[in-house]
Amino acid sequence: MRNINTHELTPMPARNPILKGGACRWRDIAILAALFVFVIVGLAGLAAATGWEATKYQLMQLHAGQIATLLCLSLVNYLLRGVRWHLFSNRLGLPTTAVQDMRHFLGGFAMSVTPGRVGELIRMRWLKRETGWTIERTAPLALMDRASDLAAMALILAGGIALSAGGIAMATPVAIFALAAAFVATRPKLLAGCVTLLYRTIGRFPRLMARVRIAARSLTVFSSGPIMAAAMTLGLIGWIAEGYAFHLLLTWMGADIGLAKAIAIFTFATLAGGLTGTPGGVGGAEAAIVALLSVEGIPLDVSIPATAVIRLSTLWFAILIGLAIFPVAERLSKNATQT
């Protein structure tokens, strides 16, 4: 088995369909719409099985001010993580402004429902157009962003488990997995070693493996105590804000299970949905929330509308923001290549 030789690499055109233009973008939007309908139909079916009136009653209890509060808490999460993206961008040496980085970060949400969220790599294309940096050079930014989310959510879930009792304890394996993945992803030498081991095991995709290995080694630039501490703080506050929104929602619906447990359930569902590999965790996250709330004794006529509202005010709200910013980011990045 030959070793990966990074010097053998030659530039290759991007093959990811998300980077090929408008046609694929409309296809992704169609997939997004289909997934949205799929989730709504599934939740509606459960609601019909338990009685529409009870579900309708719970939804009608929410007023505009409460919905606005949920959306604001989600926005806190997006903005803080956008600040973290800017922090990583500056650390990497990218010549971008805070406004550029926030535009890239929020615009990438339009592609959140691609499998494994790989569509969010559209941010790398915008950076290439506006700065001239290749995707290989900016890849560590995306990797570090995802690893930071994993680390923050794993710590939140672990804390929730420690402060809770009962059914949420089943989330322990997910917390351990997320912590382990985040640890590996933020250790350049360890991650590069894992990539090499994977290549020697499967013996395939040498160029891809070499590029991932190069990206992994370049993570060293982020290995600064203050940078990691700031990134972790921003991630923790951001994700806790969304978990707190779920707690408020359950309280308003008369199903207060405690702050720690509500945050843990929301975080677990988000991670579990991602582990299913479905676009945006759609289907898996909703099922996890309903199941864990049922374990806590919450009836379906409460858990179903609570699940629908929290997913609409988090994932789908982010996608809506992304769709609004996406055309602007595309236009400005194209303009940058023409100047």
UniProtKB/TrEMBL annotation:
Domain of life: Bacteria
Cellular component per GO, a single term: plasma membrane
Keyword Membrane listed: yes
Cross-referenced InterPro entries: L-PG_synthase/AglD (IPR022791)
Pfam families reported for this sequence: LPG_synthase_TM
Main location: membrane
Topology of the protein relative to the lipid bilayer: Multi-pass membrane protein
Transmembrane segments: 29-50, 62-80, 150-170, 176-199, 219-241, 308-329
Cell membrane as UniProt keyword: yes
Subcellular location, record wording: Cell membrane
Keywords: Cell membrane, Membrane, Transmembrane, Transmembrane helix
Matches recorded under PANTHER family: UPF0104 MEMBRANE PROTEIN MJ1595 (PTHR39087:SF2)
Protein name: Integral membrane protein
